């Protein structure tokens, strides 16, 4: 644990710049997101007729939140050279060549993901919260709002938690292909949901919170926690058994 | 430290013996005085590009015959060699060198008399040159 | 005592099979690994370090089984195989903080001495170093935690002559007390001649072509220049190569004494006997 945190500290220090860039990008996303979120709530719970795009809000939350677990404004994500050079695998190979226990290595990856996610999502949430109008909170009680944020944090943790595995357990090709795969799967899923129920996932989460209160986010916390634990187990296993060429 | 030693690829003589003879002659000629340190087995092997086992054998033989001694943890040093032994070794070293030359001459097909003449000639060439 | 014991080690790739490898490294000895490009030398090291997982066979280092005592073993190994690239944005000093943290036996004085000896600037970013400098950095980190076993993948490749000489001196010093061992791959014959006691030759298809002991090479391998070559000699099991396209002809043998006796009995006159230089033997082994 102590060793894993030591590694985390070192690495976050080295990626300081990329992390800052990522935050800047997230501020931009937050500015994009808040009017859409406001629209969603006003339409769902209010009477006003607002122009609102269900796909936009779902795309933002469903597709982008999981990315918050990665320092995505860094070279490996931005450069296609990654496909060939596979920098994350090389980094893991280097650490595996040193006397670092595999579980420490895997744990450090999970910590980096959680810390990055916490940092990114906090900034995202703060910006959104500051920007949202009073009208918004007339329709959504502050406690409901908090639960809503918690619910989506869990969602991000569950799917973002898979990212360390993609980064460090696979190769550069998969790292660049995976987002498209993710988009494709969720695109289809969202389409099916719209078609079947007529509401979006964000709509649904808001309704669930109003209906069941605490139960929805609590379930989310449990699922996300379990997910992270198993992602970590999966990564540990993968780091132990993969070939570093 | 480096020793002026060379091993020959051509020679029929085993390498350990070549090393032994050359160190002996360095000692008896006074070029390596009593107490002077010798390179470690590893270092000498590396300098001569030969195996550690070969060098170790040469050192062991030299130690058995009293030319060198190994002080645990400090290294190998030239031992005190008595005067009479020294003289004997000197003679032996030279004799061995002559024998090698004679053997080579014999192989080429020279007779004893012919070799003797060549030997005389070599003597005068080297000693007369020095006189000049 | 054996420091490394490898038995039946195999690894299959789509296009290449390495092994089965069987060999031992005795404590206090230096083993040179030679083989043409693509014969699996780097994979060989990665197999030993459990970075690549064997399909079969066992690796024992310091008498301990490899995957199960992995961390303990790795703490006492100095491994240099051009793997520091992911640290390109770090200075040498920052990289050293990683090594000193993970290796309990880290010796800061030794590290600083080596940095000075190789005239490196600790503040230099690793990514800004030239190929030769990177090699030196790699080499220094492999030695600074005073390992029991060094695994070096072409340590001298691309390094300037002066530093090559220093590396050789450092390796000789490392081996000096007879307690530590070394496996290094190299393409330089001088490394093999001056540092290694034994040589493993990997064939292009990933098998151990030969395990040469230097003292046996000195003792048994020879080139005989002879007046004539009989058919019997050509087929002699210990005559491994003959050349009669020129006069005088010569033959190569890996059993000098046997062939010498044979020649004497047959009355064939020997013009000259030469010990075989290592490079000629290796060249011959790689060709066959």
UniProtKB/TrEMBL annotation, chain A:
Coiled coil: none annotated. Keywords: Membrane, Transmembrane, Transmembrane helix. The chain crosses the membrane at residues 12-35, 55-74, 111-133, 145-166, 178-202, 214-232. The keyword Transmembrane applies. This is ABC-2 family transporter protein. It comes from Evansella tamaricis. The lineage of its organism: Bacteria, Bacillati, Bacillota, Bacilli, Bacillales.
UniProtKB/TrEMBL annotation, chain B:
InterPro entries: Tscrpt_reg_HTH_GntR (IPR000524). Keywords: DNA-binding, Transcription, Transcription regulation. It comes from the Bacteria. The keyword Methyltransferase does not apply. Residues 13-81 form the HTH gntR-type domain. It holds the Pfam family GntR. The keyword Acyltransferase does not apply. PANTHER family: GNTR-FAMILY TRANSCRIPTIONAL REGULATOR (PTHR38445:SF7), HTH-TYPE TRANSCRIPTIONAL REPRESSOR YTRA (PTHR38445). This is GntR family transcriptional regulator. It comes from Evansella tamaricis.
Automatic annotation (TrEMBL), chain C:
Keywords: ATP-binding, Nucleotide-binding, Transport. The keyword Transit peptide does not apply. It comes from the Bacteria. Residues 4-229 form the ABC transporter domain. GO terms for molecular function: ATP binding. PANTHER family: ABC TRANSPORTER ATP-BINDING PROTEIN ALBC-RELATED. This is ABC transporter ATP-binding protein. It comes from Evansella tamaricis.
């Amino acid at each position: 644990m102590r060793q894993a945190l030591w590694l985390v500290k070192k690495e976050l220090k080295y990626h300081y710049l990329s992390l800052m860039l990522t935050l800047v990008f997230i501020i931009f996303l937050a500015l994009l997101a808040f009017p859409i979120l406001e629209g969603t709530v006003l339409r769902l719970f209010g009477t006003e007729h607002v122009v609102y795009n269900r796909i936009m809000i779902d795309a933002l939350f469903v597709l982008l939140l999981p990315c918050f677990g990665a320092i995505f404004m860094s070279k490996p994500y931005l450069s296609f050279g990654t496909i060939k050079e596979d920098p994350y695998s090389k980094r893991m190979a280097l650490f595996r060549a040193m006397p670092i226990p595999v579980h420490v290595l895997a744990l450090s990856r999970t910590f980096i993901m959680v810390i990055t996610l916490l940092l990114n999502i906090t900034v995202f949430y703060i910006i959104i919260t500051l920007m949202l109008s009073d009208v918004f909170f007339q329709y959504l009680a502050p406690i409901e709002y908090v639960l809503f944020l918690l619910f989506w944090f869990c969602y991000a943790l569950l799917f973002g938690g898979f990212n360390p595995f993609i980064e460090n357990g696979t190769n550069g090709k998969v790292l660049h292909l995976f987002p498209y795969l993710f988009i494709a799967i969720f695109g289809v899923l969202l389409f099916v949901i719209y078609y079947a129920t007529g509401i979006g996932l964000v709509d649904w989460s808001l309704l669930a919170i109003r209906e069941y209160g605490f139960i929805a986010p609590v379930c989310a916390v449990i699922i996300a926690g379990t997910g992270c634990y198993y992602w970590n187990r999966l990564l540990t296993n993968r780091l132990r058994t993969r070939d570093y060429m | 430290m480096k020793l002026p030693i060379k091993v020959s690829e051509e020679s029929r003589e085993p390498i350990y013996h070549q090393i032994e003879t050359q160190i002996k002659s360095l000692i008896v000629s006074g070029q390596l005085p009593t107490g002077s340190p010798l390179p470690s087995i590893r270092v000498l092997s590396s300098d001569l590009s030969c195996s550690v086992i070969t060098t170790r054998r040469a050192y062991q033989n030299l130690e058995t015959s009293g030319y060198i001694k190994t002080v645990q943890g400090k290294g190998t040093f030239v031992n005190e060699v008595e005067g009479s032994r020294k003289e004997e070794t000197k003679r032996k070293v030279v004799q061995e060198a002559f024998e090698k030359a004679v053997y080579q001459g014999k192989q080429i097909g020279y007779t004893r008399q012919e070799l003797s003449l060549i030997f005389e000639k070599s003597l005068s060439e080297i000693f007369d040159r020095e006189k000049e | 005592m054996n420091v490394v014991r490898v038995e039946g080690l195999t690894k299959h790739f789509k296009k290449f099979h390495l092994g089965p490898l069987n060999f031992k490294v005795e404590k206090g000895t230096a083993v040179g690994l030679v083989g043409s490009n693509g014969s699996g030398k780097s994979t060989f090291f990665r197999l030993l370090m459990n970075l690549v997982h064997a399909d079969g066979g066992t690796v024992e280092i310091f008498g301990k089984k490899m995957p199960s005592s992995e961390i303990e073993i790795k703490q006492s190994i100095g491994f240099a195989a051009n793997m520091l690239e992911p640290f390109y944005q770090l200075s040498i000093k920052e990289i050293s903080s990683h090594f000193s943290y993970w290796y309990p036996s880290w010796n800061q004085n030794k590290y600083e001495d080596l940095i000075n000896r190789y005239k490196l600037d600790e503040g230099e970013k690793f990514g800004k170093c030239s190929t030769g400098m990177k090699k030196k950095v790699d080499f220094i980190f492999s030695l600074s935690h005073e390992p029991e076993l060094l695994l070096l993948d072409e340590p001298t490749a691309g390094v300037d002559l002066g530093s090559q000489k220093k590396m050789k001196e450092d390796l000789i010093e490392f081996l000096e007390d007879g307690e530590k061992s070394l496996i290094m791959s190299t393409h330089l014959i001088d490394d093999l001649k001056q540092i290694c006691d034994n040589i493993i030759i990997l064939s292009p298809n990933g098998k151990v072509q030969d395990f040469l002991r230097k003292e046996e090479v000195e003792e048994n391998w020879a080139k005989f220049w002879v007046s004539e070559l009989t058919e019997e000699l050509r087929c002699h099991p210990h005559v491994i190569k003959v050349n009669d396209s020129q006069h005088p002809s010569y033959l190569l043998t890996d059993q000098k004494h046997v062939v010498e006796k044979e020649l004497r009995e047959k009355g064939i006159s020997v013009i000259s006997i030469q010990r075989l230089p290592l490079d000629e033997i290796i060249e011959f082994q790689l060709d066959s």
